[in-house]
């Protein structure tokens, strides 16, 4: 993006300051957004020490750079020594942060020009925190090293190691501004709102992103850098976060969501880490795009009308269990924490939630994209949690506390033990051999015969229960149950059909549930798992 400026050397500050400890600084480098602010007095002292033309605008520059005034000052020092080094970018450009034009350019034409230094600081802050500038290329970085790799890469003639070293030295020398002065728009009750990205933490989770692979067009596509413009809620129709996650990770499964959460224990697993790069997997989660709501039509229009928008620019979470299964207070709490963390990073004010700055809703159910005639996902229980206002109220309170200067809620980071659901149900019984069927086999495999002689025929049916029907461990109507009954009207997607010894036809689901075919009605073809 940018090119290293000649004549810039590493310098050392001589003024005294209450500096950060090395250990604290190291911790903060892990997340550049938490580096925070240095004082206005530091800005004035630095500019005066260097004989900078920026001194006259010190107060306006400092205010414009908040809440990242410490990082901005360090970058201004390294790039142009507070605009006293002008061989590459003239002082008349008022561009001490060496902000390049988005489209690039040659010679002087590659650099942005500003009417004032405060305007430059504002433009820099907006760019590095924007989720829409080049798909959030700066904002989606976490560590200082990652951000430098985007902002001043080696490929543009910089030396990222030196750049990082200079910034660390400068940041260590700058005192923290500990005065409580949140930055952001004015809230409905008065006062400024703190809209800093990363302010609200995610709930505790197991991170399994990058631990598995899927082939293109088998449950996911690499459509380009992803963003989190909206959130989608799903119901897995399978038990236990662990089992659902393992199923979605399989090579042959034509579906993938970004997160899975257990409805009983709130055990949470991340399957896809959205980094805003070309390696991002866009799972087959929200499709098919058949009956979008007006809000989702606006979202799609924002990104050029592509139907891929709902998977590429929406983050999805799968709540394990069936449509009618309860979700505990622990699960609700973590769903609200996850939603609030994402809403904060999306720039949504607490008093405007659930609406985005673009005016459409931030939270959606799968049914709002595919239509109820295809699937009622996420089902009545999760849908009531959303639509009855309980989720909205919980999220608003988390956002309000963080943005108005109250205590930021920090969830319990202890990883919770996995749970497969209520303990009074029998465990599922897999079919030996079918567990090992991989994508290469299943692509052409029409049937599978067990060593005992039972033939399983592959199906891609979408079915609904026509009556309350038990979810059985084996093909025996009086046998053990592995979960609550499937309620009349609930839909699910079996993987195989087979005949028991008495000739009765049964479905076998991906979660090893046996369901009598006569208790169901086929309503279509399952083109997307989730």
Helix fraction bin: 25-40%
Mean pLDDT: 81
**Number of helical elements:** 15
| Spatial shape | elongated
What separation lies between the terminal Cα atoms? 38 Å
Beta strand % = 5-15%
In total, how many domains does the architecture comprise?
3
In the CATH hierarchy, what is the class of the largest domain? Alpha Beta
How are the strands of the biggest sheet laid out side by side? 1-5-4-7-3-8
| Shape-level CATH architecture of the largest domain | 3-Layer(aba) Sandwich
- Sheet bearing the most strands, described? 6 strands, mixed
Which residue ranges are poorly predicted, with pLDDT under 50 across at least 5 consecutive positions?
1-29, 179-184, 186-190, 412-423, 438-443
- Fourth-tier CATH superfamily name of the largest domain: Peptidoglycan recognition protein-like
Instruction: Report the C-alpha radius of gyration, rounded.
Output: 27 Å
Output the structural class. alpha+beta
Say what the CATH topology of the largest domain is. Lysozyme-like
Total count of strands:
18
């Amino acid at each position: 993006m940018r090119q290293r400026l000649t004549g810039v050397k590493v310098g050392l500050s001589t003024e005294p300051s209450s500096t950060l400890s090395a250990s604290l600084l190291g911790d903060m480098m892990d997340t550049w957004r938490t580096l925070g602010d240095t004082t206005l007095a530091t800005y004035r002292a630095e500019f005066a020490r260097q004989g900078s033309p920026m001194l006259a605008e010190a107060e306006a520059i400092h205010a414009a750079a908040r809440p990242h005034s410490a990082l901005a000052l360090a970058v201004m020092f390294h790039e142009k020594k507070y605009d006293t080094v002008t061989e590459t970018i003239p002082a008349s450009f008022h561009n001490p942060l060496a902000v390049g034009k988005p489209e690039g350019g040659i010679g002087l034409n590659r650099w942005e020009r500003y009417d004032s230094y405060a305007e430059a600081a504002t433009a820099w802050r907006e760019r590095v925190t924007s989720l829409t500038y080049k798909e959030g290329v700066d904002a989606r970085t976490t560590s200082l090293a990652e951000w430098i790799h985007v902002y001043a890469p080696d490929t543009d003639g910089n030396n990222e190691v030196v750049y990082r070293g200079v910034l660390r030295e400068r940041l260590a020398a700058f005192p923290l501004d500990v005065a409580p002065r949140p930055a952001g728009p004015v809230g409905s009750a008065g006062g400024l709102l703190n809209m800093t990205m990363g302010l609200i933490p995610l709930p505790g989770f197991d991170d399994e992103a990058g631990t598995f692979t899927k082939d293109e067009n088998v449950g996911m596509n690499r459509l380009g850098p992803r963003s989190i413009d909206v959130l989608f809620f799903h119901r897995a129709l399978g038990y236990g976060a662990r089992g659902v996650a393992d199923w979605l990770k399989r090579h042959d499964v034509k579906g993938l969501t970004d997160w899975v959460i257990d409805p009983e224990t709130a055990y949470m697993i991340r399957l896809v880490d959205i980094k805003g790069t070309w390696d991002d997997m866009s799972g087959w989660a929200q499709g098919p795009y058949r009956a979008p709501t007006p809000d989702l039509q606006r979202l799609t229009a924002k990104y050029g009308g592509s139907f891929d928008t709902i998977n590429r620019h929406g983050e999805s979470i799968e709540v394990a269990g069936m449509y009618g299964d309860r979700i505990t207070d622990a699960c609700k709490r973590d769903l609200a924490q996850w939603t609030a963390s994402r809403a904060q990073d999306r720039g949504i004010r607490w008093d405007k939630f659930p609406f985005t700055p673009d005016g459409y809703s931030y939270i959606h159910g799968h049914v709002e994209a595919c239509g109820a005639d295809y699937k009622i996902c996420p089902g009545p229980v999760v849908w009531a949690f959303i639509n009855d206002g309980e989720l909205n109220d919980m999220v608003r309170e988390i956002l309000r506390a963080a943005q108005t200067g109250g205590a930021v809620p920090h969830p319990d980071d202890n990883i919770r033990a996995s749970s497969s659901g209520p303990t009074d149900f029998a465990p599922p019984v897999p079919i030996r051999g079918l567990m090992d069927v991989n994508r290469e086999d299943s692509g052409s495999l029409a049937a599978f015969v067990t060593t005992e002689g039972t033939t399983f025929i592959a199906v891609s049916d979408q079915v609904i229960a026509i009556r309350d029907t038990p979810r059985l461990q084996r093909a025996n109507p009086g046998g053990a149950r592995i979960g609550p009954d499937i309620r009349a009207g609930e839909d699910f997607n079996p993987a195989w059909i087979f005949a028991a010894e008495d000739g009765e036809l049964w479905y076998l689901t991906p979660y090893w549930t046996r369901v009598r075919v006569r208790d169901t009605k086929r309503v279509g073809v399952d083109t997307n798992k989730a």
